[in-house]
Amino acid sequence: MNPNDLQGRVALVTGASRNIGRAIAVALAGRGADIVVHVANDTAAGGETVATVEALGRRAVLVIGDLSDPDVAARVVRDAADAFGRLDVVVNNAAIRPEGAFAEITYAEWRKVMGVALDAVFLVSQAALPHLEQSDQAAIVNLGGLTGHTGAAHRTHVITAKAGVVGLTKAMAHELSPKGITVNCVAPGLIETVRISNDGAAPKHHGNRKNLVGRQGRPEEVAEAVAYLAGSGGRYVTGETLHVNGGAYLS
């Protein structure tokens, strides 16, 4: 694996304020990419990600907005491409993960999750297409999730959105491969993250989740999977979902 295979490339990472998103931005920067750091509204945390990337000797800029709004998504992509004059990699990581019993989820809550976790993947990827077509190593990497494949209680909307991301990934791979653009999905399992919702408590379904390695994963381990798919070593991989879950399916 070439440690500098993203040298001279530009990557947009959505939802990059902390946790997995920040780790992805850092991993891609470590491979040589300049990074466009997107946050919905937490400019302080986004600024920390920018500073971390810059400390690695790469350029970074911060873009802000609600990607479930088509106009905002288009503007964010435009700003990303304008920042460094090109766009080679799009990582669709932005998502929200509220909990709620199926019978109590309101339609407004359902639509909010779909807007951020699924609609935004479509909107950002479509807006980025003209820029990615100009790259000789274009890649889109979408972030899914283990429960999008296994199901779980108390997060019907989140699971549905993440399952949709997998289907969208496959459909985009079919259409974009003739343009030289790979499209893949990374599905994390239990990952050690700092939670800003649910008062910092772990989701209810985490209590009965097990895996073979006997620990939670680290954001950096998810980020390495994304970096592989975004880099030169992943050019023969498209339409796939790479599971990073410590062997949860086998436990």
What can be said about this structure in brief?
With about 250 residues, the protein is of the alpha/beta class. The chain contains seven helices and seven strands; from the N terminus they run E-H-E-H-E-H-E-H-E-H-H-E-H-E. InterPro entries: NAD(P)-bd_dom_sf, SDR, SDR_fam.
Molecular structure report:
Keywords: Oxidoreductase. It holds the Pfam family adh_short_C2. It comes from Mycoplana rhizolycopersici. The chain is of the alpha/beta class. The protein has one domain: Rossmann fold (3-Layer(aba) Sandwich). The protein has helices at 19-30, 43-55, 70-84, 107-132, 147-150, 156-176, 219-230; strands at residues 10-13, 34-39, 60-64, 89-92, 138-143, 181-188, 241-244. It has a 7-stranded parallel β-sheet with strand order 3-2-1-4-5-6-7, with helices on both faces. Strand 1, helix 1 (19-30) and strand 2 (34-39) form a beta-alpha-beta unit. Helix 1 crosses helix 7 (219-230), helix 3 runs parallel beside helix 4 and helix 4 packs parallel to helix 6 (156-176).
Task: Please supply descriptive tags for the structure shown above.
single chain; 251 residues; alpha/beta; Rossmann fold; seven-stranded parallel beta sheet; 15% strand; globular
- Indicate the structural class: alpha/beta
- Strand arrangement within the widest β-sheet reads 3-2-1-4-5-6-7
At CATH level 2, the architecture is: 3-Layer(aba) Sandwich
The DSSP helix count reads 7
Helicity, as a percent range: 40-55%
What characterizes the major β-sheet?
Answer: 7 strands, parallel
Mean pLDDT: 94
Number of strands: 7
This entry's quaternary arrangement is: single chain
What letter string, H or E per element, gives the SSE order? EHEHEHEHEHHEHE
- Gyration radius, rounded: 17 Å
Per CATH, what is the topology? Rossmann fold
Query: What distance lies between the first and last C-alpha atoms, to the nearest angstrom?
Result: 30 Å
* Integer tally of domains: 1
Strand content: 5-15%
